[in-house]
């Protein structure tokens, strides 16, 4: 199974992955499909094996806030499965995706102690990441936050080219705005500023980063 570095499945052994897969059943979804809905009380988890999804929530005014983009190897829905609480976020496909659904995840963890410990460490890591993003919102301007998100996408999904690092952008500008905590207009202005400095080049659903180190400096 193709797994992105840093995702939960990258921490498991081949045997553990085989046993977890055996506990689930395969599923696939087309682009734009809602897999999990904020507030639902379903208790299954999804292991993503192909494609990318966005994890989002909505404010009381209805504004979508993108919390994360997840790819192959991601474990989704684990918090609701563990404590039985309603889903804390909505998961929507950004492209056709495949994975396998595990309905009795607690039973699997009870018989796989090492996986349970790894999951605790993984959840703590996500909480730390959430704290870091909250600090970014207060410390960085919109352009700095946009640069940070582009760097994250480049490090996870980027392909080296003669002109730099090419990223097939899975998000629309509205979704990128939701991911940076800014308006669409502010994100458009930030992208234009980064283009004017020669750091990036943008196209439909893609970004080419010409100067990754320069982008990192702007993010800081």
UniProtKB/TrEMBL annotation:
- Which PROSITE patterns does the record match to this protein? CNMP_BINDING_3, HTH_CRP_2
Q: Which InterPro entries match?
A: cNMP-bd_dom, cNMP-bd_dom_sf, Env_Response_Regulators, HTH_CRP, RmlC-like_jellyroll, WH-like_DNA-bd_sf, WH_DNA-bd_sf
Q: Which residues form a coiled coil?
A: none
Which cellular components does GO assign to this protein?
Answer: cytosol
UniProt-recorded name of the protein = CRP-like cAMP-binding protein
The molecular function GO annotations come to: DNA binding; DNA-binding transcription factor activity
Keyword tags: DNA-binding, Transcription, Transcription regulation
Cross-referenced CDD domains, in alphabetical order?
CAP_ED
Indicate the segments forming the Cyclic nucleotide-binding domain, all copies.
8-98
- Domain (HTH crp-type): residue spans on this chain: 140-213
Q: Give the species this sequence originates from.
A: Nonomuraea soli
Give the Pfam families listed for this entry.
cNMP_binding, HTH_Crp_2
């Amino acid at each position: 199974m193709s797994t992105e570095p840093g995702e939960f499945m990258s921490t498991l052994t081949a045997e553990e992955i085989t046993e977890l897969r055996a506990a689930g059943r395969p599923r696939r979804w087309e682009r734009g499909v809602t897999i999990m809905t904020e507030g639902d009380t379903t208790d299954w988890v999804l292991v993503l094996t192909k494609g990318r999804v966005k994890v989002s929530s909505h404010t009381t005014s209805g504004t979508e806030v993108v919390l994360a983009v997840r790819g192959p190897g991601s474990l989704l829905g684990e918090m609701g499965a563990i404590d039985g609480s309603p889903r804390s976020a909505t998961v929507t496909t950004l492209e056709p995706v495949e994975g396998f659904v595990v309905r009795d995840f607690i039973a699997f963890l009870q018989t796989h102690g090492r996986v349970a410990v790894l999951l605790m460490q993984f959840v703590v890591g996500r909480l730390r990441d959430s704290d870091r993003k909250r600090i970014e919102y207060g410390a960085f301007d919109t352009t700095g936050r946009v640069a940070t998100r582009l760097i994250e996408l480049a490090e996870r999904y980027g392909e080296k080219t003669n002109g730099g690092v090419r990223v097939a952008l899975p998000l629309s500008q509205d979704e990128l705005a939701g991911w940076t905590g800014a308006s669409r207009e502010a994100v458009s202005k930030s992208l234009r500023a980064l283009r004017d400095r020669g750091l990036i080049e943008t196209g439909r659903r893609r970004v080419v980063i010409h100067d990754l180190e320069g982008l990192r400096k702007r993010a800081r």
